[in-house]
Amino acid sequence: MNTIPITKFGAELLKAELHRLKHVERPAVINAISEARAQGDLSENAEYDAAKEKQGFIEGRIKELETTLSAAQIIDPATLEVEGRVVFGATVDLEDLEDGTKFTYQIVGDDEADIELNKISISSPIARALIGKEEGDVVAVQAPAGNREVEILAVRYI
Fold first, then answer.
1. E strand segments, 23-116
2. Which pLDDT tens digit goes with each residue over 65-94?
């Protein structure tokens, strides 16, 4: 099995979700199923069907999280010694050379990527373009709006 890179923070979030699913959600849905069974005829019991569907989702997500965590290679960006290069886990400050827009991204694993939190997947086009580059480099990035050139203003490991 291949390892899955994930930041220390991302692994902690996945562990917390797994704990919640196993110790809160799973018992609640089991209780809902037994309450629905107590109502009698299961063939026309919408609560039973909904609870069974939710149980399937929860069990599937538990298995997915356990698989991901068992294959995880946890990387703590704060402990990296890479001399200013953009690597997995790095937080990168960028400036779009065309319009001067400045933005920041952290390069994370696929399971923890969230563009609203400025966390981009290591497999995204922008992350692949940035990996290995250094502060001050100008990088051509393939974006949905077309090719852009960005300058790396800073690389941090937090």
1. 72-75, 91-96, 102-108
2. 999 999 999 998 888 888 889 999 999 999
Q: How far is CA 69 from the centre of its chain?
A: 12
Contact criterion met (CB below 8 Å) for 15 and 66:
no
Assess contact for 29 and 58: CB atoms under 8 A: yes
pLDDT tens per residue across span 29-75: 999 999 888 887 777 788 888 999 999 999 999 999 999 999 999 99
Q: How far apart are CA 77 and CA 66, in angstroms?
A: 23
Q: For residue 102, which phi and psi values (nearest 5 degrees)?
A: -110, 140
Give the number of residues written for the chain: 158
Contacts of 57 (CB under 8 A, 6+ apart): none
